[in-house]
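Lecture 7 notes: from sequence to structure.

We start with a single chain of 272 residues. Read the sequence below before looking at the structure.
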Amino acid sequence: MDNTGSTGRKRDGQPVDFGRTAHDYVNHRVGFPDSLFDRLRNKGIGTPKHVVLDLGTGTGVIARGFARGGCHVTGLDISPLLIAESKKLDAQAQVKIDYILGPAESIPLPSASVDVVSAGQCWHWFDRRAVLGEVLRLLRPGGVLMIAAFDWIPFGRNIVELTEELIEQHNPAQPKPHIRLAMGAGLYPPFVRDLSEGGLSDIETWSYDHAVRYSHAGWRGRIRASQGVGATLPAPKVAAFDEELAQLLRSHFPSDPMDIPHRVWVAHGRKP
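Now the structure, written as tokens:
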């Protein structure tokens, strides 16, 4: 994957810049539920004093989840705008997180210095082979690579399915690596293969469903913060899309707020 600079990447020739969505990303993109970190701690991942590196940290949702559990956390991202927003949210949450601006394919940390490397909602954006090599270099023996996804689930002509169709109409060229990998089900078998081919042991996968409540305004903001809309379309096209989504919500889904089905999916393995 080609790095397009400090604010984005390219996929299938189309620039992807989540920094442009920073406002909506912070205000409307609901992150992983707290239950994820409870389940990870029960498996010995992200326990107090663990040194954690969170790749593709974005606005720091995963990083703060580990920091609240007593871990020493560093977040890495290529977007200075998202890191700036992360620091504001850290201050509000009263947690201390260090940050590195740069790509996950080349990380300026010493070898064998990390207990847990996490990648939440971002593994599909990386040059996975290159990042896996860096992860193996950074992990201490017995250290864990944890890959997680938190996807909305389309089915039965629900708002998710109709929203995805609307995105496709407005941005048919949008990059869809997560859809190709997960097949719309929120499950990622290729990522498990990455762990195995990287030589990690004690590989586990698990998932559970979790409903997220969105208002109409919140859902519109969440979708503007997605790769197929705000991260790739120019501002006038984002505005046109947003108005059409508002009309769809009013005409087909008048209940406000709405419960949107999501799935948490996790794979992790240990460095021998």
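Residues 9-153+177-213+261-270 form a domain with the Rossmann fold fold (CATH 3.40.50.150). Keep this in mind for problem set 3.
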